[in-house]
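Q: Now give one record:
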Amino acid sequence: MKTLKKSLYISVSALTLFTACSKKEADAAKEETAQQFVMSDKMYTQCTFADATQENAQNEIRLFGKVSAENNNISQVYPAVGGSVIKINVELGDYVQQGQLLASVRSTEIAGYQSETSDADANVSIAERNLQSVKDMYEGKLASEKELVMAQKELDKAKAERNRMREINQIYKLKSGSVYNMYAPISGYITTKDISPNEMLSANREDAVFTIAKLDNVWVLANVNESDLGKIKVGQQASIHTIAYPDKDIKGKIDKIFNVIDPDTRAGKALIKVPNTDGTLKPEMNATVKVHFPDDEQYVTVPSAAVVFDNNKNYVMVFKAKNNIETREVTIYRALDDKTYISAGLTAGEKVIVKGNLLTYDAIND
């Protein structure tokens, strides 16, 4: 029995010793492979490199909002008269020029305006003839000065009414007949359309039939939770992404923070003005806004693409020469989309591999 125990002990010891030796040999082989690895010229040309820098770490808050047209670049079109819609020349989303015909309405009110305009012109002619007649009679001592003054007043009154009707015709761009035309007050895109053929429009309706917006510049209105209001400041840099163009990084800054809290969402609003010369941003688009602001502490900074994550650890490939590349484990303080801040394992000034780091990591460590 003692002999059996002794044999078993010797076997376990031998197995342990063999395992330890095998591990040492594997580590030695791995180290030897790393030391022997030399980056080829072709691989070197395909890699990109970056020097680690020392920077204040950037904080990031992610907000959600919508694209909106600028308030000062929106114009709404209301029907000045009631009537039946006989023609619509534009559709939702169309671009229109200032003065372009949008829709036509047949209206009895327009016919009434035309009649009043004709009456006003006729009354001026009658008043002019009457004044001339009174002047002739006054010179012949057949009319009093009072009658002359009254005739002049009647002419002035008739002219004032004619001018009023001309102004109405000019404002509404009225022409002969009973058709009222609606024209675009500004150049821009039709962002809302609430009118249909043969619809009976009311002159006193509260909603516009068309909304036209200039979209050369737009607003992004981001919702800010109450807990984040103290962190958001005017002038902070922001990155904007939309579902339609996820790869397009739109830069802006916080231009205004509204001093109002929505009672339903319990959120405030931040405004970012964004150029939109290519017209890709459209009103009501959903947008993700990342607001950046710096920490007080500085950290070693590398591009996020330079970090390799493997076996629940983070590494960077430190490049010193083609035959001297080190796999360095690092401790990450904060990782953003484009930058990663490192609290331990790397010093400023060291060069790391960015593009090609995974291939290099596999070649050295596999």
